[in-house]
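Request: Show me your protein:
***
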Amino acid sequence: MMNNPSQQGSKRSSRMGGLSRNVWVLTLVSFFTDISSDMVINLIPLFLTGVLKQSTAVVGVIEGVAETTASLMKIFSGGLSDKLGKRKALAVLGYGLSALSKPFLYFASTWGMVLGVRFADRLGKGVRTAPKEALLAESVSKEKRGLAFGVQRAGDTAGAFLGLLIATFIIWRTEANPNLLSRETFQWVVLASIIPGVLAVLILWLGARDVDVAQPKGAPVLSFKGLDRRFLAFLAITLLFTLGNSSDAFIILLGKDRGLTVLQVMAMLLTFNAIYTVLAGPAGALSDRIGRRKLILFGWLAYGLIYLGFALSKTGTAVWVWFGLYGIYYAMTEGAGKALIADLVPQEKRGTAYGLYAAAVGLAAFPASAIAGVLWTSFGAASTFYFGAGLALLAGVLFWRMV
């Protein structure tokens, strides 16, 4: 008989905080992946609007299409990992696709080319997300699950911080005008992003160990039977919340619109990631002690207040301060939300559940970013953030009553 996954995770525990080898490997993978991604992705809105002379509506469409079209892959990939009873191979494939696609931004000369790269990169994320998160959940005991997801998110965000720091250094060394981002500088950043992306794939391939998942014979690749009603309610409410959670590209554009230079925008992003990195692990551990639900509710309340702050911001400094506080919302909700899914869903359905969750967020990304772009263009920047704050409040009330 197969051992309980929690027992398997405990047996594989290292001496480092009682977390297994897989947790630390996946944390390193996230660290190097985000060094690679955040060097480039956060500059794309500035590249599109400043170099390619596109509107904020185009930024919204690109972000929305890239996330939405990849979302269907997240569902299929999660279900396939359940069917195969294996997670690692699909995760390696997804990370590899993202690492191969981002360098093509070096040649981007139209918004369509940027869209193509963003689509391929997000497709890779779609392939890897659910198997990776199911593997993480199955590599640790339930009592340490919030901590494990928090540590993984901290590694992810520490990588984002370092990636932004490297990109900032490149901009500082290559740009004569701090208010502009040139094509040449963007290309240097893209080139620098290649090495950490490849390292992430190699670390996952060589370091992670699969956890066997028992599946009944003849089980379909994708089946929603056996999913807890509370999980389905959480999924629906998250979908509503995400409709108001447009791409963070709009916050970057708001900072630029309120007077921040490109270097100051990068410093703003560094502030956000520093706060997120410091708080993610402790917040995950806190969810193990007080419960995921309370932490998520507090996080969504913080989100609504912070988005109101963005809407009322009149200066670049104000946007910078609110974006730093935005890291608190991420630290409180990202790890706790994923740990909650593992709590609510049986092992043999976790790939499917994580795929559905990621897909719900991704599918809502297109209308969220498209709505944000239209609101910004039609009624001004503040309207985008008032809309997000309102939906966050509604989602919080529904989560409190229904889950």
Q: What stands out?
A: Confidence is low (pLDDT under 50) at residues 1-15. Residues 145-174 form the longest helix (30 residues). The chain has 16 helices and no strands.
